[in-house]
Amino acid sequence: MITVDGINLNSSDIAALAYGEASVRLADEARARAARSFEHAVQISAERVVYGRSTGVGANRDIAIADANAHALALLRSHATSAGPLRSPERIRAMLAVRLNQLAAGGSGAAPDLLDGLVVMLSANALPPVREVGSIGTGDLPALAVTILALLGEVPTSTAPLAPVTCGPKNAMPVINSNAAAIGDAALAHASLASLSRSAITVAALTFAAVDGNPEAFAEVVERVTPFSGAREVCRSMRRLVSTVTVPTRIQDPLGLRSMPQVHGAFIDALSHLDDVVCRMANAPSENPALLPGHGVAHHGGFHAAYLAQAVDATVSAAVQSAQLAMARVSMLTEPAFTGLTPFLGAGAAGASGVMACEYVAASALGSLRALAMPTAVQTVTLSRGVEEDASFASHGARQALTAADDYRTVLACELVTAVRALRLRGARLDDLFDNLTQEMADRDLTADIAAAARLLPKLADIPQGTRIA
């Protein structure tokens, strides 16, 4: 059970709710906080002009609205416009979890009944039909508009119809003023990439064992000369996983191993920053206008998700650099000068291809990953008759980060297949973890091997202290 309180939701909570690993409840104080914001919004809207409640939106911000409920309903219908395929249930649940928590932070002015409706949606897995295309990083308007229409009973959900929320559309409108879908995607990307980043160290340790690597690259002194937390984590993890040798085989290894603390450590630090941004944004009442009791009303640009766009861009870029080292290690494992084995770890007849194709698959996945690293935060756009002249495109960056996890996983799976094969050819005793990776060495289609290795990666993310993997 995860209690949503508007204060403490983190990336792991979002992922657990998204993947159905936990149920949700709304803290009483959180609902009361949202109710106070709602009452404040009603009061202050009677005293002064408030954007979106007594006016139109965008370029219509100066137009006074006579029938607020009718106008709000029309806005919800129009803003539900989208295109593309439906999003996966996991991504929609992540969005709902984030939006529920943001509303619980108490600054939107939305009716508290809407929070109850979101809890029911999550608990019943009754999901709105959210499509892929429509957000530009200044609010996930189509995704959240269709969510509110579903809560109001206008749009069917994925399961049995929900009892409509009993509130006027004008009090539901504030719900669409959020980047909850992009934040949810970023949280899921973080969960996948953070697990893979830990698996990558274990896989690299297997490669290290297969090529008799030089442990000096991970010595305590390296933590002093590379003074970053991620680099230190890599050094400590590798020291825990690899054997120390008295006389190294080489004075220094290729960069695929030697520069792991500096490159993979930067990836770990980028993930840490992404997690921090996701958590801050998921717990912030950043709606425009801000309607916090005791603080009046403030019209502002908190909907602009530049922090998120830059964090996901940096994370994907760091993933590429880490994957490049993994690709280099795959190539290292195919070279007899490093392994003492046949070229491409071939077995049987001379000229066997062995794992040659794994190198190609890894290169293909790396190529896709590099394409995803094109920064989204450098984009901009001018919309709504020129009054909205910038956008973060964080929604695109978060989606790219989700896809990047798949490509990064494939590169690591190729290294894992190759490293385990090399160790077996050398007669090494492997942990029982690797029993599901076939011991067949003859030339054949390795597609199933790569898939099995990808499934094994989560188990390699958190190797218990003292476990010797090879």
UniProtKB/TrEMBL annotation:
| Tree of life domain | Bacteria
* Alphabetic keyword roster: Lyase
The EC number on file is: 4.3.1.3
Pfam families (UniProt xref): Lyase_aromatic
Q: Does the keyword Lyase apply?
A: yes
Which terms does the record give in the GO molecular function aspect? histidine ammonia-lyase activity
Q: Which PANTHER family match?
A: HISTIDINE AMMONIA-LYASE (PTHR10362)
Q: Could you identify this protein by its name? A: Histidine ammonia-lyase
